[in-house]
Design brief:
It contains ten helices and five strands. The protein has 226 residues and is of the alpha/beta class. It starts with a strand and ends with a helix.
Length: 226
């Protein structure tokens, strides 16, 4: 069983992923570390010409890494919670590079063909539930300015506005699996880890009886608050 967590940078995906993993005793799958991607520095290290030269390589690396991780998770079995989905890699970020002119039409078509073929693989079975984190743009940008990585804090607002719009368009048409939408203004897991309880109740209602039978809460509350 797989629960996917989706949402913009700054929406708190990793925090919620860890909290749900602890709450339900799920295995945890976080995004790969930036240092493991040799194309990031090439893509961000120069101007627009460098971005155009490496956009396809960057997104293919993300795609390959994502499906490798999914294959290993499916092979290991059990129940998982996933920080960011393969749908976002393609439909938000790779498509965004194409729309911004950083990928040519031929490059986008090549990427899209590979992505569509990978969707037919056993590793890409849809999650049992997609938890979508959302908020108005100003809330997301404020969070990024406070908590984001240095590169994120320095990114112009126009980039976040375009990303926010793509996320809203994407989720409006998403039909691969059931979606639970959470407004991130309604809770604060950083300030109050026990706020996971009403979220956990909503998740449980959507995925029973697929959750593990052993409910670890409140024994693991210390792991959230410590």
């Amino acid at each position: 069983m797989l629960i996917g967590i989706a949402g913009m940078v700054g929406s708190g995906k990793s925090t919620l992923t860890r909290a749900l993993a602890t709450r339900f005793g799920l295995q945890l799958a976080l995004e790969s570390v930036d240092d493991e991607n040799p194309w990031l520095e090439k893509f961000y290290g120069g101007g627009v010409d460098e971005m155009r030269a490496h956009a396809l390589h960057l997104q293919l690396h993300f795609l390959a890494t994502r499906f490798e991780s999914m294959r290993r998770m499916r092979g290991a079995g059990g129940s998982w919670v996933l920080d960011r989905t393969w749908y976002e890699d393609a439909e938000i970020f790779a498509r965004g590079h194409f729309e911004e002119g950083l990928m040519s039409a031929l490059e986008w078509e090549l990427y899209r063909r590979l992505y569509v073929e990978l969707l037919h693989s056993p590793a890409a079975r849809p999650p049992r539930l997609l938890v979508y984190l959302h908020a108005p743009l100003d809330t997301i940008v404020s969070r990024i300015r406070r908590r984001g990585r240095p590169m994120e804090r320095e990114t112009p607002d126009v980039y976040w506005a375009a990303l926010h719009a793509r996320y809203e368009r994407w989720i409006a048409g998403f039909r691969a699996c059931p979606v639970l939408s959470l407004d991130v203004r309604d809770y604060d897991l950083v300030g109050d880890p026990t706020a996971i309880e009403p979220i956990a109740a909503r998740v449980r209602a959507r995925v029973e009886p697929a959750l593990p039978q052993t409910d670890l809460f409140p024994a693991n509350l210390a792991a959230l608050t410590g």
